[in-house]
Amino acid sequence: MISYECSQFNTFNAKERYPMPNTEKEKQLAAEASVKFVKDGMVVGLGTGSTAEFMIRQLGEKVANGLSMTGVPSSERTANLAQELGIPLTPLDKVDKLDLYIDGADEIDAQFNMIKGGGGALLREKILAYNSKFNVIIVDSSKKVESLGKFRLPLEVIPLAHKKVVDQLIQLGLNPILRKLDNSEYRTDENNFILDINISGQKNLKDLNTRLLEIPGVVETGLFLDYVNVLILGRAGDVEVTHVNRN
Ligand SMILES: O=C(CO)[C@H](O)[C@H](O)COP(=O)(O)O
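That's the Ribose-5-phosphate isomerase A sequence above. Prediction below.
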């Protein structure tokens, strides 16, 4: 179980933050709607997390029924699941651009800015989203917020530098917490640490993102600004599909 250790030595489970009975159904509905974007011959980036897992299982069924596609996984966890389901995979450097990337999010605001990385895969996820022609985001209704920040923003950091990064983040008033897994530091697929920070009340997200990336040792942030082409939101037994106009 992923937990966070605070300075007060208490822990909490990130996934218990929004207890909603319909959440799983909403994730499933959003995932089902997203696979309709996948056409024969496409190279599709596969996200990470419980919502993405519904989507990958749907794609597995489609592949078993004759869909020809190739997946590019955003994590080892996703790669393992896709392999189990018989979805052909290729590494990112073997393709030019992804035709499509489908993934979940931890929060998405009214301007379609997102926090991602609750599942720890933010770095590879951002690389895939950046290198995709089209990004489809699938969420349950609990993820839609007016402004980001109830969920802590994950930062992937180099282990050697993490204490120095923590000092900088404390000076910026961002209250960093080192993510733990079973009492040890959580390690990403790239063998880095994650610091989860409090960005509640931050107005200029672009500026914040730039300032965070300027700290040596910060590899990537879970702020995804200007990435969404289509948002599919599961709500009460149905889905809302929003096409985002990105200039
Ligand atoms: O960014 C992610 C993983 O790094 C996930 O997309 C995010 O955590 C949402 O996960 P879930 O669908 O399980 O709520």
